[in-house]
């Protein structure tokens, strides 16, 4: 799989979906859609850039643990609301620092002329959330691009994203 540009820059944009605000990101891959689907759903591919999961997705939930943030990160319960391989995955979880708030994510894939576009969206309920998750998703998606291009995701430095991109996301989602 080859991919496009990985220069750190804020790429998320505001989008309204069914009356809800989302921050939306896109990344493109010169690869078949099934290969990109595997990169976002198979634990051995996912672990290279963000984390891993255990459990049975057919049950509607899995246990996910981020691996890029240290060894002591607790597992999160991820609920799978929709899974239409290889084009759409919709999930949600409780916010790690405030279980009363739910984070919802939508992943959509499309392929044209050998190029697969990943569109990733996270529901944003307030600007303070956008200041953190916007740079965070730019960081993780750039790690995915590096991993899928055969690069080393550990060369992607979070300090190049946060707090540098926070103002962009504060303005974009205000």
Automatic annotation (TrEMBL):
Residues 31-146 form the Activator of Hsp90 ATPase homologue 1/2-like C-terminal domain. Pfam families: AHSA1. Gene3D superfamilies: 3.30.530.20. InterPro entries: ASHA1/2-like_C, START-like_dom_sf. Belongs to the AHA1 family. This is Uncharacterized protein YndB with AHSA1/START domain.
């Amino acid at each position: 799989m080859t991919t496009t540009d990985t220069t750190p820059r804020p790429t998320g944009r505001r989008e309204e979906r069914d009356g809800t605000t989302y921050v939306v990101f896109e990344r493109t891959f010169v690869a078949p859609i099934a290969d990109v689907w595997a990169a976002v759903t198979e634990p051995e591919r996912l672990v290279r850039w963000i984390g891993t999961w255990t459990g049975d997705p057919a049950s509607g939930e899995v246990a996910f643990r981020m691996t890029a943030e240290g060894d002591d990160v607790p597992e999160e319960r991820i609920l799978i609301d929709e899974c239409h391989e290889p084009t759409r995955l919709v999930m949600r979880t409780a916010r790690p620092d405030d279980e009363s708030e739910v984070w919802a994510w939508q992943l959509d894939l499309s392929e044209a002329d050998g190029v697969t576009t990943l569109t990733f969206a996270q529901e944003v309920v307030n600007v303070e959330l956008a200041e953190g998750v916007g740079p965070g998703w730019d960081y993780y998606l750039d790690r995915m691009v590096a991993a899928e291009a055969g690069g080393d995701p550990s060369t992607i430095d979070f300090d190049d994203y946060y707090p540098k991109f926070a103002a962009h996301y504060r303005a974009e989602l205000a």
